[in-house]
Specification:
two-stranded antiparallel sheet; 70% helix; mainly alpha; 2 strands; 17 helices
Length: 489
């Protein structure tokens, strides 16, 4: 592509960003948000980064990966959230990559991959449901956000991964940034004696709560295990990764996050499932069990048996063991608050089963469908957290088809990952494939009782893991074709 044309496009893009940044700056200053005072310092840096990275998207990508663990969520007027600096960088990266796809002669063969087709089909359905959305602009923003996650962390990652060393570079950058955040959180938590009461706030401002923080640590854990004991790595690298593994283990321990503990506990069993080639069977059993439970819980309004529990919830800030006991008795406040929102979701699904309420709209609509008997002490939801189930969220917001597309993709990618793992002959790629698969599974497990695919720190890891699996598949097919040509000649 002609360099002068590129510069013109870059100039137009830069001017657009300046205008958008100025508008954003005005809004933030007008809102009285303290974080707004940091914006004038970040905008010039952002513009410089975007301008100089225009001719080398790889450097911008690496910068985004490194800065994601440090991103800070800012609440904008109208209750819209934005993560700085990651989301503006991702948005810029998305536009630049689209420009490169349109005007540069780059390899687009991976667009024909079934995984790519599945993801694009899901985005297409999001666009369709937006026409029926109760909050169209919210849904449009949601789709744009979903597009930059897919374009940057899936499509560009696959495009970037020309060698296995690139996989290691991406993972090292993310883990290095996350390691610093964990150290910061541990030092902050140490001031309170690592107590349970402060476990949901000490990671601020980098994480909204301990659930997102714990889920992110759990998602990088398989990569650390791979790096800590993978002999092709130089010895000094393995020592550094082993130290990071210890830090992450301690960090995970003090998150007091039940879903993260459960995900890490299940990893060895999941690994055995993949080694034994019984992934399809295991997924079938899990899906049947979930369907039976949901049917039992909601049929004949059985869930109303737990209605009074919402009025007598327990929260033991000073004793995590008692909090676990309350969970076992179905009396802890977080479990009952999930019931409160899941029942609202059930009522919403009955109201709009086909199209849903529109992408990203649950938080604006669910209060009209709640059952007051399940209301808890945290039902005011000042932090505007979501439904606490990714699968139910897509069901509510995008209808039956949206939920089935997401669930179908989840099942497909986990079965596909097993095929990639067992057909791969390269030892290094094989280890990277299984580490990415296990990372992906930790996020899938968390998403049963949380909705984390709109959180930049976890959505990035989710799509990077998928990109690694697809990359290994492409590399393996090329290797097989090469061997076939050699043997046939």
């Amino acid at each position: 592509m002609n360099q002068s044309i590129l510069r013109k496009i870059g100039t137009v893009f830069g001017v657009t960003i300046v205008l958008a940044s100025s508008i954003l700056q005005s809004i933030l200053f007008g809102s009285g948000n303290i974080v707004a005072y940091l914006i004038p310092f970040t905008i010039p840096l952002l513009l410089l980064v975007l301008y100089f990275s225009f001719f080398n998207l790889k450097n911008l990508y690496y910068l985004i990966v490194l800065t994601i663990p440090f991103s800070i969520e800012v609440v904008l007027p109208g209750n819209y959230g934005m993560s700085l600096p990651s989301e503006p960088l991702m948005f810029g990266m998305m536009l630049l990559f689209i420009t490169q796809l349109l005007f540069s002669n780059i390899d687009k063969s991976y667009f024909n991959h079934p995984v790519t087709f599945f993801l694009l089909l899901f985005v297409f359905w999001l666009i369709i449901t937006t026409f029926q959305s109760t909050h169209v602009w919210v849904s449009i923003k949601f789709i744009i956000m979903k597009c930059w996650f897919i374009l940057v962390f899936y499509l560009f990652t696959v495009y970037l991964l020309n060698a296995s060393e690139d996989i290691n570079k991406i993972l090292i950058l993310y883990i290095a940034g996350m390691g610093l955040v964990i150290i910061y959180t541990l030092l902050n938590h140490a001031r309170y004696g690592f107590d349970f009461a402060h476990s949901s706030s000490v990671m601020s401002p980098f994480f909204r709560n301990h659930v997102n923080y714990g889920a992110t640590i759990a998602a990088i854990y398989p990569y650390l295990l791979m790096g800590a004991f993978h002999k092709p790595f130089p010895k000094y690298w393995r020592r550094i990764i082993q130290l990071l593994l210890i830090i992450c283990t301690v960090g995970l321990l003090f998150t007091y996050t039940r879903a993260s503990y459960g995900a890490i506990f299940l990893l060895p069993f999941v690994y055995i499932t993949y080694r034994a080639k019984i992934v399809s069977l295991s997924l079938s059993i899990a899906l049947i069990a979930i369907v039976l439970f949901v049917n039992f819980f909601f049929s004949n309004y059985y869930y109303m048996n737990y209605a009074l529990e919402g009025r007598y919830t327990e929260f033991h800030a000073d004793d995590y063991v008692k909090q676990l006991q309350a969970t076992a008795k179905m009396r802890d406040v977080s479990t009952m608050e999930r019931f409160y929102r899941w029942i609202a979701a059930y009522n919403m699904i009955r109201k709009e089963p086909i199209w849903g309420f529109g992408p990203g709209t649950f938080i604006f609509e669910y209060r009209n469908y709640t059952v007051e008997a399940f209301r808890t002490s945290v039902s005011d939801n000042p932090e505007n957290s979501g439904l606490h189930s990714q699968y139910l969220t897509y069901w509510v917001e995008t209808g039956w088809i949206g939920m089935l597309l997401h669930l179908g993709f989840t099942v497909y990618i986990l079965i596909f990952a097993s095929k990639v793992y067992h057909t791969c002959k390269d030892t290094t790629l094989k280890k990277q494939a299984i580490a990415a698969t296990l990372s992906l599974i930790t996020i899938v497990i968390h998403n049963v009782v949380n909705d984390l695919l709109e959180v930049d720190k976890l959505a990035s890891l989710y799509f990077i893991a998928i990109a690694i699996i697809v990359h290994v598949d492409i590399r393996n097919k090329k290797q097989v074709n090469t061997e076939h040509l050699l043997t046939s000649s």
